[in-house]
């Protein structure tokens, strides 16, 4: 299977050479897949100039015509789905079935924004005298600098690029250096769909060097970042210093509340596969399992049976259900979390160890009676680790769920109508999915509160993030 050629894209031109660069590694084999070029300072200057020029041109294209270009890019991605999915599995590691789902979702996101961009309505506000006309217009905010992570290389990028373009903005995308192929394919689709030069630009490099160069530039009017809380706080402080609008999609530590009136086997069938999706390297991954004491043992038994049945291996093998960790940092982190929790009294029910020494495989892991003081209970594990505690009452469960500074996603399973209503009222998170798994669709808002960031992607909020309001008041001369 062929891994695609890695290139940057600036002002409508593909660039396959840089002064520096890095090897891209297949996390299933540890072998080099290709060489990724890095942007030089001159490249970044050209990208900024291109984004400035591209914005001036693209903002004048009508939303109707912009939507046609977006829809064309979506069609091209649909046609290219299989090749893109293979590249994504090769550099990111997830099973090919998951990569296909991720790539298939990308055109849906683009189509949503293509349509929603045509509905950037303003409003007329009654004046205080009958000859005054006053209205609020929605305008594209300007050139965007976007930074996307390695866990969903296609989907984290497409939500930013499609929303920015639909709103009439230009964008400089810094893709993930370790998993770059999907971003290259995404930008290729927009290029082939006829996006004017300068409207979309793709660069790679040392992340801190690029963000420190782009964010202060007067050309850039909006920052969008998906990644860890510490980096998000750093970039948000830079955005504040230079007065740039910002969207921050940061980490989470999702609680799952399982009440005593549910069928434990049914809950396992929903939450089990979701826990180990992308080897748990998902910002909304279910992590802290708070299970009512009446169903704890039964639910645990079913969850363990599911966990032990998972076939871990190279994502290109169709039988694989969980791939490797995307990079060796995650192996180190998992080993540290497990050792620390075990030392503090947690029981490792299954897993807990690295698998082999080729590639970055880690066993699907379940730990029970994990104390609140364990590091894994307070820091985002971002891996295939499920942490269990028992609870005895609704208030007890809610207090545990809300105890961390994270506030991204939550999950709950309960039959009682009162419990369901109380859950959505009292949970301290940006999203909650009750009795099914239903987050991150193009038409629904996705975003966190507290340390998990601010702003949304998806839904009408996702487009709003790239629009500014201009108030106009006028009287006839
Ligand atoms: P990290 O904190 O070093 O990096 C996180 C992301 O930020 C990466 O994509 C990286 O390229 C980028 N980044 C780092 N410094 C940057 C800077 N100064 N400017 C711009 N971008 C910068 O950690 P990591 O080892 O790559 O990832 C592990 C952690 O990141 C996880 O524990 C998880 O919390 C978080 N993460 C979250 C998401 C998400 O979807 N919210 C995705 C990937 C990683």
Summarize the structure.
Helix content is 38%, strand content 21%. It is of the alpha/beta class and 477 residues long.
Topology:
Blueprint: E1 8-10, E2 13-15, E3 21-25, E4 32-37, H1 41-58, H2 63-79, H3 81-92, H4 96-116, E5 123-124, E6 132-140, E7 144-147, H5 155-167, E8 171-174, H6 181-192, E9 200-203, H7 207-214, E10 222-226, H8 229-241, E11 245-249, E12 254-258, H9 264-276, E13 286-292, H10 296-309, H11 328-343, E14 347-350, E15 354-355, E16 361-362, E17 365-368, E18 385-391, H12 394-401, E19 409-413, H13 417-426, E20 431-434, E21 453-454, H14 459-464, E22 467-475
Nicotinamide-adenine-dinucleotide is lined by residues 147, 149-151, 176, 207-208, 211, 226-228, 230-231, 234-235, 249-251, 283, 329, 380, 382.
Give your account of this protein's structure.
This protein is an alpha/beta fold and 477 residues long. It folds into two domains: 8-250 and 451-473, Aldehyde Dehydrogenase, Chain A, domain 1 (3-Layer(aba) Sandwich), CATH 3.40.605; 254-441, 3-Layer(aba) Sandwich (Aldehyde Dehydrogenase, Chain A, domain 2), CATH 3.40.309. The protein has 14 helices and 22 strands. Strands 14-17-18-13-12-19-20 form a seven-stranded mixed sheet, sandwiched between helices. Strands 9-8-7-10-11-21 form a six-stranded mixed sheet, sandwiched between helices. The chain has a three-stranded antiparallel sheet with strand order 5-6-22, with no helix packed on it. A hairpin with a 6-residue loop joins strand 3 (21-25) and strand 4. Helix 3 packs across helix 4 and helix 9 packs across helix 10 (296-309). It is globular, with a radius of gyration of 23 Å. The mean pLDDT is 97. It binds nicotinamide-adenine-dinucleotide. Residues 147, 149-151, 176, 207-208, 211, 226-228, 230-231, 234-235, 249-251, 283, 329, 380, 382 line the site of nicotinamide-adenine-dinucleotide (NAD).
């Amino acid at each position: 299977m062929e891994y695609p050629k890695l290139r940057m894209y600036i002002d409508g031109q593909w660039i396959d050479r840089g002064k520096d660069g890095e090897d891209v590694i297949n996390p299933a084999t540890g072998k080099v897949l290709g060489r990724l070029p890095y942007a030089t300072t001159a490249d970044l200057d050209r990208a900024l100039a291109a984004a400035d020029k591209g914005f001036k041109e693209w903002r004048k294209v009508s939303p109707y015509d912009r939507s046609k270009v977006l829809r064309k890019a979506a069609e091209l991605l649909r046609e290219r789905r299989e090749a893109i999915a293979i590249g994504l599995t090769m550099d990111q590691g997830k099973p090919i079935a998951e990569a296909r789902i991720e790539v298939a979702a990308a055109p849906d996101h683009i189509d949503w924004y293509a349509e929603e961009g045509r509905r950037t309505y303003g409003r007329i506000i009654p004046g205080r005298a009958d000859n005054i006309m006053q209205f609020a217009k929605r305008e594209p905010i300007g050139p965007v600098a976007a930074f996307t992570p390695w866990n969903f290389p296609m989907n984290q990028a497409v939500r930013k690029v499609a929303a920015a373009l639909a709103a009439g903005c230009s964008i400089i995308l810094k893709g993930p250096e370790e998993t770059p192929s999907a971003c290259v394919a995404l930008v290729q689709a927009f290029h082939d769909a006829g996006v004017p030069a300068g409207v979309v630009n793709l660069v790679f490099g040392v992340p801190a060097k690029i963000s420190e160069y782009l964010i202060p530039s007067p050309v850039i009017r909006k920052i969008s970042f998906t990644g860890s809380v510490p980096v998000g706080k750093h970039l948000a402080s830079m955005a504040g210093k230079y007065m740039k609008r910002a969207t921050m999609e940061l980490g989470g530590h999702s609680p799952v509340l399982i009440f005593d009136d549910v069928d434990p086997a049914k809950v396992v069938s929903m939450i089990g596969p979701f826990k180990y999706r992308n080897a748990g390297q998902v910002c909304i991954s279910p992590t802290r399992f708070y299970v009512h004491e009446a169903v704890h043992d039964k639910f645990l038994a079913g969850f363990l049976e599911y966990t032990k049945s998972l076939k871990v291996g190279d994502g290109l093998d169709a039988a694989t259900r969980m791939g490797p960790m995307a990079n060796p940092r995650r192996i180190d982190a998992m080993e540290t979390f497990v050792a620390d929790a075990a030392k503090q009294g947690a029981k490792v029910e299954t897993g807990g160890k690295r698998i082999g020494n080729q590639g970055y495989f880690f066993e699907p892991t379940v730990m029970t009676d994990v104390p609140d003081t364990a590091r894994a209970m307070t820091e985002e594990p971002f891996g295939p680790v499920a942490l269990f505690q028992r609870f005895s009452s609704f208030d007890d469960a809610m207090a545990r769920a809300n105890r961390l500074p994270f506030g991204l996603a939550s999950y709950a399973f309960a039959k009682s109508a009162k419990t369901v209503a109380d859950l959505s009222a009292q949970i301290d998170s940006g999203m909650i999915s009750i009795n099914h798994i239903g987050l991150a669709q193009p038409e629904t808002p996705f975003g966190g509160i507290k340390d998990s960031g601010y702003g949304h992607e998806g839904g009408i909020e996702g487009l709003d993030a790239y629009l500014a309001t201009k108030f106009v008041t006028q009287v006839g001369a």
